[in-house]
Amino acid sequence: MSVISFLRGQPGFPDALDWSGFPTAIVESDAEIECLALGDANDAELAQGYPVGVAFGPRAELRWRQRRDGLHLVLISDDGAGLPEAGKPHALRPVPEEEGESLQCYLWGEWDGTAQCHVERRIPRPLRYPGQTGARVALRLKRYELELEVSAAGSSGVETEQTVARISRYAGIHTAE
């Protein structure tokens, strides 16, 4: 069962958060954006040092952002796991891939065999994508729908109505199709 859960205004990451399902992270600070391989606890600790990030893998994605009132976290999981201490997660409905539809997002840079890394001349700096060499790189995406109740102005005042929000998550990094 696919679910989404969130925590707001936290002093830090929950101790019980399992990072083992996230082989890759894209993290950012005011000075840099990096793509990291999360092979062990030290790598996960390094990723947690950034104020903004997304850690992802085939079964789940964790996003975080440091705000004035603390750390905000969102977890999308395909195995029903929610964030520790977050309460009951909300159910998501996976959106099936349509035949021939490519669910991917291209990443910056082209492979430069001389520099042995991806290079984007407009940035200008080397880009390192874990485990990716020799070709254009993309993020694999999964899409979901979340049913929400929202308040809306109606003829008899404020009314509640159902709406559907589309949500995407990163599911992996791979050679672009």
Structural commentary:
The chain has about 180 residues and is mainly beta. It contains 1 helix and 14 strands; from the N terminus they run βββαβββββββββββ. The protein has one helix at about 40-50; strands spanning about 5-10, 25-30, 35, 50-55, 60-65, 70-75, 90, 95, 105, 110, 115-120, 125, 135-155, 155-175. A 7-stranded antiparallel sheet has the order 3-2-4-5-6-1-7, covered by helices on one side. Strands 8, 9, 13 and 14 form a 4-stranded antiparallel sheet that branches. It has a 3-stranded antiparallel sheet with strand order 10-11-12, with no helix packed on it. A hairpin with a 4-residue loop joins strand 10 (about 110) and strand 11. It is globular. The two termini are about 30 Å apart. The model has no long low-confidence stretch (mean pLDDT about 90).
List the helices and strands and how they pair.
Elements (H helix, E strand, L loop, with lengths): L2 E8 L13 E5 L4 E5 L3 H8 L3 E5 L3 E8 L2 E8 L12 E2 L1 E2 L9 E3 L3 E3 L4 E4 L4 E3 L9 E18 L2 E19 L2
Antiparallel strand pairs: 1-6, 1-7, 2-3, 2-4, 4-5, 5-6, 8-13, 9-13, 10-11, 11-12, 13-14
Number of helices: 1
What's the order of the H and E elements? EEEHEEEEEEEEEEE
Total DSSP E strands? 14
- Morphology: globular
Largest sheet: 7 strands, antiparallel
Q: Indicate the structural class.
A: mainly beta
**Which strand-content bin applies to the residues?**
over 45%
The share of residues in helices is under 10%
Sequence stretches where pLDDT stays below 50 over 5 or more residues: none
> Strands of the biggest beta sheet: in what spatial order?
3-2-4-5-6-1-7
Radius of gyration: 18 Å
Whole-Å distance between the termini? 28 Å
Summarize model confidence as the mean pLDDT: 91
